[in-house]
Amino acid sequence: MLVPPITDERTFSKVMGELLDVANLVIGEKPFLISYINERTFQSLKVMNHDVFTEGMMVPIEKTYCHQVYKNKKPTVVSDIENAVQDDRREKVKRLNLCSYAGVPILLGDGTVFGTFCVFDEQPNMFDDKTISILEKLASFLAYAIDLQIINAKDPMTGLYNRRFWDKVYDDLPKQDGDHSIAIMDLDSLKQINDQLGHETGDQLIRTFSSIIHETIPWDAYGFRIGGDEFSIVFYNKNTDQSKPFIDEIMKKCHHADIKLSAGMTDTKKTPYEKLVTRADQLLYESKSKGKNQLSEG
Questions:
Q1: Of 201, 223, 199, which Cα lies nearest the Cα of 212?
Q2: What global pTM score does this model have?
Q3: Which CATH superfamily is domain 163-297 in?
Q4: In this protein, which residues make up the domain named GGDEF (predicted)?
């Protein structure tokens, strides 16, 4: 599961809690849930008035009613779960003693869905247009707070994530199941380009390379600019064999764009977590010592 792009968790948790308090006052004392969702997984971030739902709970997204909210980017209401479509979701929600569901998307400024703002009830047919309208307004406030967090997590020149969010993702990596890989990359000869052709040319090189990262890495990976000409990628649930084709594609595109790149790559299967960065750095400098513009892995 990707780490949500949040850098100030304490403030964000406080904002979510206050919005749930408002929902509780306006809609009534019902189970509420705020989620973070990606293409495969649903994760609850904040829960109110329910003992079984827990914060941090993760399930496959297709097992949730929030799947339709995420897929269609529109509110979803299930008025009577007892008589809804016969599937795993119906049986699981019944065991939680819940009969009605309403969820709205948390739509960010770029049009993507961060997650959902949901409410449940023990009785059927409990949620009307007014309830949906309230949820949508609260979700829009939350989306604004998330957009501000994402701005703080991104490098303004490139749109890649910054060193601050890199530290958070890296610190969280041991909590994630599976094997993960990281690549650390360095643009060769950027200083000489700046000195000979000017910083505008160097900055454009950085932006072009960042665009290549954006368009090439898979959805379950994060790209970072962690220094002036130093970049990194975290590939979730992929070892180096599975991640290498993406780095190869990046280097191929760099060749066509006349960008020279050195890279080092390792994974949590080959290297202990606490030595991942050190090992990737060693492999990066191995690439440079062998003539630059190549990838070393190990």
A1: 223
A2: 0.87
A3: Reverse transcriptase/Diguanylate cyclase domain (3.30.70.270)
A4: 178-298
